[in-house]
Amino acid sequence: MAKIIERRDLMKLAGGAAVGIVFTPAPWKFLDDSSIWTQNWPWIPKPLRGELITRFSVCAMCPAGCALRAQCIGKQPISLFGVPGHPLSQGTLCPLGFTGHHLAYHPSRATEPLRIEHSNDSINVIPISRDLAVAEIAQAIQSKGADECIAVIDSRPGRTVSLLYRQFLAGLAKGVYLCEPTGTCATFDTLQALSEKPIGPLGLDLENTRTLLSFGAPILDGWGTPGRIQSLRRNQSQPDAGKRLQVIQIETRQSRTALFADQWLPIKPGTEAALALGLANVIVREKLFDEAAIRRNAVDFDRSDSRSYLDLVGQFQPERVTEVTGISQDKIVSVAREAARHGPSIALGGGDPAGGPLGEAEEIAIAGLNLLLGNLGKSGGIVGRSEVPVAAEMRSAAAVSPSELAKIPDHSIRVLLMDAAESGNALPWTLIEKKLVSERAVVASLSPYLAGNARQAHFLIPAPAHLESLQEIPTPDGAVRSSFSLSAPLLAPPEGATDPIDFIRSLATAVGVPLAGGSAMDLLKGRASAIYENGRGEIFVFAENKISDIKEAGSAERFWDMLKAGGCWIDAKHEMESAPRFSLLGEPSQGFEKLSASAQGRLQASLPKEYPLVLMPFGWRFAVGNGQVSPVMSKLYQESGLRDMANQAFINPKTGSALGLVDGGQAVVATRQGSMPVKIQFDSGVMPGVFHVAVGPAPNKNEMAKKIDENILEICQAGNDLAWRVTPAQVRKV
Amino acid sequence: MKIKGPILFLIGMAGALALGWYAFPRALYKKIEQPLQFSHKVHTGKDAGMACADCHSLGEDGRFSGIPKLDKCSTCHSAQMGTTENEKVLVEQYVTPNREIPWLSYLRQPENTYFPHAVHVKLAELKCEQCHGQHGASEKLRPLEVNRVSGYSRDIWGQSISRFRKQEGDGMKMDDCISCHAKSGREDGCIDCHK
Amino acid sequence: MDTKPGKSRYGMVIDIDRCNGCGACMVACAVENNVPPAETRATERTGITWLRVFKVDNGESFPENRAAFVPMPCQHCEHETPCVMVCPQNAIELDKQTGIVTQVPVRCLGCRYCMAACPYHVRYFNWWDPKWPQGMEKALNPEVAPRMRGVVEKCNFCHGRLQAARAKAAAAGERELKEGTYVPACVEVCPTSAITFGDLADENSEVAKLARDENSFRFLTRLETEPKVYYRSKQPFVRKFGESALERMKKEAANG
Fold first, then answer.
1. Does C40 touch chain A (CB under 8 A)?
2. Residue A231 lies inside a defined structural domain of this protein
3. ipTM of this model?
4. Distance from CA of C212 to the nearest CA of A (A)
């Protein structure tokens, strides 16, 4: 018997073990567990667990101010919904709004102040302390030249911080307060400029309007408060169709509004003024207006110097207007008659969110149309609304009045501050750059996101992101009753974020300008108190879907709490004082000439040979500017093309083929201002000779990797009134 | 000797059987103690007399609270009520600094399954003991036995490693759910349990 | 637990004339179902859009050209459901109680046979692991499990909401779901109420009435898949699409 263990013995041992192990649970269980292990990928996130809690707030992404209900697990908002019964938003929250809780995590979000260095096409960011940033900006302010000014761009005027900016600027020598040359309220602003005395804030009484002549405004695709328009249209598709709001969309591009409007007038690019005056011509000629009232109230309706409004519209007969605009004479006449006979009617200007403002002459012509239609201060027309009370401690200090970006001299701004809030419309950097004093200018952005114009700044002092801090929600654009609500925070902001109110206070202290009031919270509470003391209006409480008189709150403290927990104050209706006298031509000296010249349209004579096409930028409201959208919006952009990504160019197939372009291929757009690559798509709905280039986000793509000037707006040309929506251009294949 | 071969074979087999039946189950599971010792008996017994649903409650929206959050404990234990060391730890380390207790769940199912307590407790009227055994009367919390390979609790597979002739209520794998459903005459589709 | 004596057949009627192509349904679907934002390389072909809105037009030139928007979720075919018939893993099932064509992603092995079989192209593959910007994963919906790469997923009529509705009804001691308690995300969020959802087996429900309407049609009926998603339109050029396959957008072909 051998005492050594041989290989064969080990084999026998192993053989026994192998047979034995099979009769145990070990291998089978191990196999089962391993297969489960292969499915436990640690980098696949697991949703949070816990009880669902409901909290209320208001969306602050755009001026619409829609109420929202958030379902949260602990402190984390999981999903957002509209608030049914809300008098304005009517339970709707748009897709940008209901993904708003993602913005705090947006890749381009900045969590601390940054110094931004520019080199060629790219930027380099360096974290910097807030105090240092404020000190350097203050230094620049104090060392400015005598001719130079300090400017603030505020895209959402009417807030407490807006007043604070104006008071700060009043304390400086040459402080300039600028709102964007925005689309949405352009018609209101123009009416106010044409009026002899101030007429206060305005709104559109769409609930009673019968005919809406929209000159390119995205009425059915995000204008004003979307829920309001949608519920109007929904309620009005009832059998009682006689009272339905008729939307007549006047726009070159077949936008979604044009597609779903009751009529679409595809005018030639830049000819809105001619059409507005042409409609006025028909109304005046056929005496479809209240002549006595106009003669009484308009200072320049009929004068003896053959430069009156009557003389002006006399030039715009349908035969002539049809040549300029491309709309048939019959159509011009029928639309004018419809607007005049089927009132109340409103003419609304503003333009596309990325195409930008229509222009001064256009807006004056449109305002004139409104005055001719007699809708100012009347039901279904353009109505006044009250001024929202201001915090007591802020009332006495001096404040600069708003200026227009177009009217301030070029190369005059030494220090520019760009506020964080977005209007939903685009503002090309080139227009701002023109007003800066070349290289010595210092630009600071307060945006939470390092995107858009913020990337052009020298300093980024980020505000808290959406839903991270208490924000004031002023009256939405177009509302007929003034309102006030609070966007309560649902998330905690990072340490490095600075509320704009706190920033402007620090800056004011650094340059020695005293500012009224206390912290952001104090000022907002002060405003709420002022509203409560005023004793007017009602409060709508989201959680209870109930409206009650403001006095039932009992105290200013309780009123504040109700707002913070989810409530909205709505003022009573406001009666406009007696109709003011107004001018129909704008400037007394040059108005007639300017408006007559608009007969040719924006592009004047014919297009130059080297730029035979018309470039028209366009975009979806709020997805065109510097504000960010949730990364999950990629569903609509990269992953489906339902909304158009930046630099997608749409061109008529005939026009495109004639240029040798390929559908789906690359091309280069050239204008006098420069050139830019685009992606071509043939679209039979596009007017020949025109091409539309999208301005939009690329959700979830790395912003930092983008070149600074990749935005088509940079090569669009702006007129003296800063309208950039039509540009002569050429498209070359690549 | 010719018998050496078969003996070695049998030794190998015996060793493997022992390994598979005894050593393997012990080695497979890692014991982790709960962060805090808690006596169900003290709370549900004659003194405090609480019912399961007092802490493990069903919300109006149909969601089950699972293991209760700290605020449930803080309602009573905001200050020390008794004399045990465990309660002292509860108050000092968790209630006072408002820190959630990181309890370990014995029956955590995979992410893609869905078990609605509401349907089973309210409509099928199952008693807690039918699935959770005498846990509600236990004096201390046993350690969680985690499968080192799959990461799941031992209670999911069940105490019986081979699952032959396993007892009622032991294990909570899909087959266990299905066998009970079959007994009640229910026909199930995938979406009834899977997210 | 819809223990009604008859079984439910959940379906939809989508009014194309009302759809304004806003995309709210697509975004709500992604948020509800934990679909991640596009990976950097994702395109229209490789992205994941359980519900996708297509733009179609009447083929005319400017200015007679008119477009329409057609939302396309999974059609939940009832007869010889193509994807169910080809899946080698039995990961797909036509649920008997509700009529929903369900997909169990953890069972899928990623062969994509179902994607080839589906005539409506409404199945999507996870080419990459889902990745959310840091922190955003905290906002995931707890009623839906995120998937890993390598599996197919598709619209399931938000059956996570069905479970939640059942649990809520159970908590109140009720066995039957009241109408309107179970509503998929896309239906809930549509601003023009273009999508009507409900039980087609219930003759008196809104959705069943609309489905029987003369203006309602379905796509690819000649394939006899018996989809449960109906469409409505009074525009002739839209109805014509019902008879032919949905044309892939030209830009899809260019993108590859």
1. yes
2. yes
3. 0.92
4. 21
